[in-house]
Specification:
about 300 residues; alpha/beta; 2 domains; 9 helices; 9 strands; globular
């Protein structure tokens, strides 16, 4: 059986939409665990329990998303744990596609799926974050030297016995605790370092229903940048070669785009567009440096155990 975990906090409308889409899935032999950090505690409406065969609504301390996810994992009954976010809509074949993939690939411990914008036509001028679209399947047997292969935590599934071989989702990298989250990327790396084989399958799809203005999107990008550098800084401090390679690539790209922005200012003059672009590009390497220090600090002082 598949156990679907959804961590949520103060996004009730999105959560109910997500649960509604799950209730319309083509198979019903799965359970849903909602790990809720909302205060005051508000139960789910009775209609959710009428539509879904198995729903467990647990309340957890407001200690961040990682705390919620780890709490939910301890309550699963299935052998496969699927993760999505409360602001995602899942298609009718989502659970079935996950079941089929694991049945056909018994040697794979986890599968990453794609995340597409939900009804993009209805949100002109807005941007959807955490979108991951890769046209072809691929396998991962070790941490990739390109962070773009890791995907996002809003659509993946892992065998429970593989999850139990990790340290769990790290609290200091989770939403609600850190300036920039990366608990999902870290979990992928933990699984790979423990010797597990992961895969990406584009037919396993969720639709992300979160929309931001251009400025909100840039701020979100900087938060993700902080989290990614913190995660890679953590592993680089432990001597993991892949992490150092990722950091070098990211920094080279960040400084390259910053230089282009400066050249645009010099050639086109100071105006709102060019200076605004330069500001965001200039911020990225500094945010990245702060993230690396954050990750290094946790590797040395907070979570110093060698990673797997």
């Amino acid at each position: 059986m598949i156990s679907v975990i959804i961590a949520t906090k103060n996004r009730r409308t999105h959560l109910l939409d997500c649960l509604s889409s799950l209730s319309e899935n083509s198979v019903s032999d799965f359970e849903v665990i909602v790990a809720d950090q909302k205060l005051p505690r508000t139960p789910l409406p009775e209609s959710v329990y009428n539509k879904l065969k198995r729903v467990t609504h647990v309340f957890v301390p407001q200690g961040g998303k990682s705390v919620a996810l780890n709490h939910a994992i301890r309550n699963v009954h299935g052998t496969i744990v699927a993760f999505t976010d409360d602001d995602c809509i899942v298609p009718k074949n989502w659970v079935q596609n996950i079941q089929t993939y694991f049945r056909l690939h018994p040697d794979v411990a986890g599968v990453l799926g794609s995340a597409k914008p939900y009804r993009k036509y209805a949100h002109p001028g807005l941007y959807c974050p955490a979108v991951y679209i890769h046209p072809r399947p691929y396998l991962l047997v070790k941490p990739p030297y390109k962070s773009s292969k890791i995907g996002f935590g809003n659509n993946n599934a892992v065998r429970l016995n593989a999850l139990r071989q990790t340290e769990g989702f790290r609290t200091w990298l989770g939403h609600g605790y850190t300036p920039g989250p990366a608990e999902d990327a870290d979990m992928v790396i933990q699984l790979l370092l423990s010797g597990q084989k992961l895969a990406y399958e584009p037919s396993i799809v969720v639709m992300h229903n979160r929309w931001l203005t251009a400025q909100e999107f840039r701020k979100q990008h900087l938060r993700y940048t902080f989290g990614e550098y913190a995660c890679m800084g953590y592993y680089a401090a432990q001597g993991k070669q892949f992490a150092g390679s990722v950091l070098k690539r990211k920094y080279a790209a960040a400084f390259s785009t910053f230089i282009v922005a400066i050249r645009n200012i010099l050639s086109k003059g100071i105006n709102r567009k060019t200076t605004g672009t330069a500001f965001w590009k200039a911020a990225e390497p500094w945010i990245g440096a702060a993230g690396m220090i954050y990750g290094w600090y946790h590797a040395v002082h907070i979570n110093p155990r060698p990673s797997l």
